[in-house]
Design goal:
32% helix; alpha+beta; 5 helices; SMI1/KNR4-like
Length: 178
């Protein structure tokens, strides 16, 4: 799976242990995220895809400006819950920690969110949701399929614009704590 993504992003440079990276995070949040997503994050680390989409890591420090997944979940959940309290129609999905939650996994440089949605069916698959700030798109596919289709410009609407090739496919940003 990861080899298909590396065709577009180059070889991963972090290559950490997936179980070690995610065990504490998933226990603390009482959630389980899809293996292919965790494998991608542990292999590539926190960073930017095509200088546009920022991915967070569970072992990035909580300090301001870091790419901490924990901090992003807390910040985003609060924002969505505050928005929903004003107008419920603006946030049509349950937000973590609500049942069948969505949880942020990445953010576009202009602030739009990429979210994972937990299946309503126990043991069911996840979907990916893109909040464009003017609408929501749900993609019923694995994280790997989403990345491959996004990077090959076959998603509608496109989510990883190729900016004339002037940016590297993936750039590591931030740091990871042990």
């Amino acid at each position: 799976m990861l080899s298909n993504i590396s065709t577009f992003l180059g070889r991963p440079t972090v290559n950490r242990d997936v179980d070690a990276d995610w065990r504490e995070f998933e226990e603390n949040f009482r959630i389980s995220l899809p293996w292919d997503y965790k494998d991608f994050i542990s292999s590539y680390g926190p960073g930017r895809v095509r200088n546009n989409v920022i991915f967070f890591h569970p072992k990035s420090p909580m300090e301001s400006g870091s790419l901490s997944l924990e901090r992003e979940i807390q910040r985003t959940a609060k924002s969505y819950l505050d928005t929903r309290s004003i107008d419920p129609s603006l946030v049509p999905w349950p937000i973590y920690p609500e049942p069948s939650w969505v949880v942020p996994i990445a953010r576009e440089s202009r602030g739009s969110q990429f979210l994972l949605r937990r299946s309503l069916v126990e043991g069911g698959s996840y979907s990916l949701i893109f909040d464009w700030h003017f609408g929501w798109d749900e993609y019923q596919m694995s994280f790997t399929d989403f990345m491959i289709k996004g990077l090959s410009a076959t998603l509608d609407p496109p989510v990883f614009p190729a900016e004339d090739g002037e940016y590297p496919a993936f750039v590591s940003v931030g740091r990871i704590e042990e």
